[in-house]
Write a structure and sequence with these properties.
The protein has 525 residues and is an alpha+beta fold. The chain folds into 4 domains: 17-133, Immunoglobulin-like; 140-224, Immunoglobulin-like; 230-309, no CATH class; 320-520, no CATH class. The chain is 25% helix and 25% strand. The strands form 7 sheets. Strands 10, 11, 13, 14, 15 and 16 form a 6-stranded antiparallel sheet that branches. It has a 4-stranded antiparallel sheet with strand order 4-3-6-7. The chain has a 4-stranded mixed sheet with strand order 20-23-19-24, sandwiched between helices.
């Protein structure tokens, strides 16, 4: 709120100079207002992170009048905590201390306010609120065999004091050593042939950082056991035997056939590895290298095995009826990937838009869906993502149902809707499939994949899923989708000779029914 200075009617030469000065000062103050209120790194992570101090910064449109005052405080359950009552000049920067907590997995939502006051009247004339969603505390652990001969050495970037968090080093799955995260490193003697990894955990076993697995090739050297970013020993631990991996690959729907055999190249590589008595890690490496040589098959194996080990009532897709998983309910093979991806998404959002719970729900849903058809982590980090959510609940529910039945529909290509060859038949679905009967009042026929995609419309194969849903949800999702296309600068494919276009921008559709509809362009942090 800003007052406007009116003209002085019939100036009086006898007005006391001090009164004139006060009036002039009040007019100057009213021309100054808050232009920006944001967080900034204060020697710690680039966005606010649980356990670390950070800064809040206020910027004014002009120099604040000496007759006025700027105050900055935090709104807490117990009342206001003042950061400064002298935010003068062109603004100010203040340090915010971390909230004392032992639960670093669930950062609080913190609310700050800056208010500009007239000193003479005490009236507020401008204010701004800043809501800060901190990131979950996460340690990007690093490990090597090079720090000192005979030791597996773990570096803990950004160590913290006065916590219950420990860096635990595991040898062949059993604890070998532990150090409080106050110390910036931890190490343990190496046994040739043993497997090692380290994790930061709290007393309840919640995870705050994990290294890949390493195998000691001698008493002083070792190698990382990964295929790209997939930890092979932890993936292998989801299967009882190497034969079980091969049996699962018999149903792998996206395998290649470069070997000109009816079984996939991935199954042939697996079967050969079993015949040659290779270790689980070596077998998985051979499977990943088979055919076109991508890690998509490993992400698919993770997904399939995870379905088997979770509780029987676990949904086959994220997450109908708002059943979003607690990250600690997922097998460890997923936890590190979900935490890393959620951390990446919070950086994309600059810490302002998403709570930690929302970031983890979106990361888990993206990995879960994308891993059914491709390299989940790569797709979720590099492709634009349209997140359809709770504000269009019936549309989101339909998208979930459609993607369950056709997993390939999680990945679409944009096509300009008005340029579609079948545009004159835009309402093609009337009288078709689930939209055959007359709709109830307030309903419309919804199609998924979207009309404005290469997988949508009557020329697409397979034919899109149809369902009557709430008309408001249908229309609002369309508007949100249009904003996503514009914001992420998606490009339509080549005009078709017949049928739909080809070559449009690839993107993911991730239904998450517990967050509002949103999107990520994934242009880098």
């Amino acid at each position: 709120m800003r007052r406007v200075c009116g003209r002085l009617m019939r100036p009086l030469w006898l007005v006391v100079l001090a009164v004139g000065a006060l009036a002039f000062g009040s007019c100057v103050a009213q021309a100054t207002y808050v232009t920006d209120f944001r967080t900034w790194p204060n020697g710690g992570p680039s966005v606010p992170t649980m356990g670390w101090p950070f800064g809040v910064q206020v910027t004014y449109s002009d120099r604040l009048s000496p007759w006025d005052t700027g105050k900055v405080w935090e709104e807490t359950a117990s009342g206001r905590v003042t950061l400064t009552d002298s935010c003068w000049y062109y603004g100010c920067s203040e340090t915010v201390q971390p909230v004392a907590s032992r639960d670093y997995a669930h950062p609080p939502t913190r609310t700050f306010k800056v208010v500009l006051y007239h000193t003479d009247t005490g009236a507020a004339y401008d204010e701004r609120t800043l809501v800060v969603h901190e990131r979950r505390l996460h340690f990007a652990l690093e490990a090597d065999f090079d720090w000192s001969p005979g030791l597996f050495h773990v570096t803990v970037p950004g160590s913290l004091a006065n916590t219950t968090l420990d860096t635990i080093i595991y040898e062949n799955g059993r604890e070998a050593d532990r150090c409080n995260v106050y110390w910036s490193h931890c190490e343990t003697p190496v046994t040739s042939g043993a497997s090692y990894y380290a994790a930061v955990e709290d007393p309840d076993g919640k995870l705050y950082g994990i290294t890949p697995s390493y195998r000691a090739t001698s008493s002083t050297t070792g190698v990382k056991e990964t295929a790209d970013q997939i930890d092979l020993p932890r993936l292998g631990a989801l299967y009882a035997t190497t034969t079980d991996v091969c049996n699962m690959l018999l149903t792998f729907p996206y395998g290649t056939h470069l070997a000109r055999e009816s079984p996939t190249d991935q199954w042939i590589a697996c079967d050969t590895a079993v015949a040659n008595r290779l270790s689980m890690t070596a077998l998985l490496q051979a499977v990943a290298a088979a055919g076109t040589g991508t890690t998509a098959v490993l992400w698919w194996l993770e997904h399939q095995a995870t379905v088997q080990v979770l509780s029987p009532d676990w949904p086959t897709t994220p997450w109908p009826d708002a059943q979003v998983p607690a990250i600690d309910d997922l097998p460890q093979v997923w936890q590190g990937a979900v935490i890393n991806l959620a951390d990446y998404y919070k950086l994309q959002a600059r810490g302002q838009a998403w709570t930690q719970a929302a970031a983890e729900a979106i990361a888990a849903a993206c990995l879960w869906n994308a891993s059914r058809i491709t390299d989940g982590l790569e797709a979720c980090r590099s492709l634009p993502i349209f997140i359809t959510g709770a504000d269009v609940a019936e549309a989101t529910e339909h998208d979930i149902e459609a993607i369950v039945g056709n997993p390939q529909w999680v990945k679409l290509n944009y096509e300009y809707g008005r340029g579609k060859e079948a545009y004159q038949n835009r309402n093609w679905y009337i009288g078709q499939g689930a939209c055959r009967a007359d709709p109830d009042e307030g309903q419309q026929c919804d199609e998924y994949p979207f009309w404005a995609s290469e997988q949508g419309g009557p020329a697409a194969f397979p034919t899109p899923s149809l369902r009557y849903i709430d008309a408001r949800d249908n229309g609002l999702q369309g508007l949100r989708y249009g904003s996503f296309v514009t914001s992420c600068r998606l490009v339509s494919g080549d005009p078709p000779v017949s049928g739909n276009a080809r070559g449009g921008s690839t993107f993911l559709v991730i239904p998450v029914p517990v967050v509002p509809t949103d999107w990520l362009c994934n242009r880098g942090s």
